[in-house]
From TrEMBL:
Keywords: Flavoprotein, FMN, Oxidoreductase
Statement: the UniProt record of this protein carries the keyword Manganese: no
Single GO term (MF): oxidoreductase activity
Name this polypeptide is given: FMN reductase
Key word Flavoprotein present: yes
Domain NADPH-dependent FMN reductase-like: 2-153
Listed Pfam families: FMN_red (PF03358)
Organism expressing this protein natively: Friedmanniella luteola
C-alpha cells in the first residue's frame, strides 16, 4: 500500500502544529479515497525524538526510535511536513531532523509543506524558507502550501479549502499518469499539423 508520513515539529502539547498535521493527514486519506485509492498515513511528532536528534548531531549515528522514523521517511511514498514558525523561519527541531537525515532520502519524493504561527504575517516563511529547503533536498513540493495562523482556526472554511487542495495535489502526484495512444511517443507516427492545431483549439 502507498505510504505517507506526516512529520510535525510542534514543541507544546497539545500543539496547533500537530492539529494541522492531523487535519492534513485526514484530508490526504479523503483525497485518496475519493480517487479510489488507499493510503497508509502515519503521523510522527519530532518532539518525541529531540534527544536522539541531538545525540545524532554529536555522534553521527541515529539510534532507537529515531533510526526507525528515518527509515520510514526514506521508504515513504510521500511526505507531509508541518513546522511552527520561529523568527520568520522553520523551527530548529524541524531543521535538525532534515540536517541528520541520510542524503538523497527525499530525492523525487512528493512533499506537502505546511506551517503554523500566531500571525498571518509569517505566512511567507513557507515560500522563502521551507520551499527552498525542500528544493535543495530535491523533493517534489506540491504547489499549494498550507499556513494556519491563530485566526485561521476560527475561520475554518478557508483553511479547510487550502488543506483539501494541497492534499489533492499530493495524492495526484502519487497516481500514475494515464497514458493514451496519443500521449505515447512513437517515432514512426507523424501527427498531421492540422490535427495538432485542432487539439490546441480544443
Amino acid at each position: 500500500m502507498t505510504r505517507v508520513v506526516v512529520l510535525t515539529a510542534g514543541l507544546s502539547q497539545p500543539s496547533s502544529t500537530r492539529l494541522l498535521g492531523d487535519r492534513l493527514a485526514a484530508a490526504v486519506r479523503a483525497a485518496a479515497e475519493s480517487r479510489g485509492a488507499g493510503l497508509d498515513v502515519e503521523v510522527v511528532e519530532l518532539r518525541e525524538h529531540a534527544r536522539d536528534l541531538t545525540n545524532q548531531l554529536l555522534t553521527g549515528f541515529a539510534t532507537g526510535a529515531l533510526a526507525q522514523v528515518q527509515e520510514r521517511v526514506q521508504r515513504a511514498d510521500a511526505l507531509v511536513v508541518v513546522t511552527p514558525i520561529f523568527s520568520a523561519s522553520y523551527s530548529g527541531l524541524f531543521k535538525m531532523f532534515f540536517d541528520v537525515l541520510p542524503r538523497e532520502s527525499l530525492v523525487g519524493k512528493p512533499t506537502l509543506i505546511a506551517a503554523t504561527a500566531g500571525s498571518a504575517r509569517h505566512s511567507l516563511a513557507l515560500e522563502h524558507a521551507l520551499r527552498p529547503l525542500f528544493a535543495h533536498l530535491r523533493a517534489v513540493v506540491v504547489p499549494t502550501a498550507v499556513f494556519a495562523a491563530t485566526e485561521d482556526w476560527a475561520d475554518g472554511g478557508a483553511l479547510d479549502e487550502r488543506v483539501a487542495r494541497a492534499a489533492g495535489e499530493l495524492v495526484d502526484l502519487l497516481r500514475p499518469a494515464r497514458r493514451t495512444p496519443e500521449t505515447v511517443a512513437d517515432p514512426d507516427v507523424v501527427v498531421p499539423f492540422a490535427r495538432l492545431l485542432a487539439r490546441g483549439r480544443g
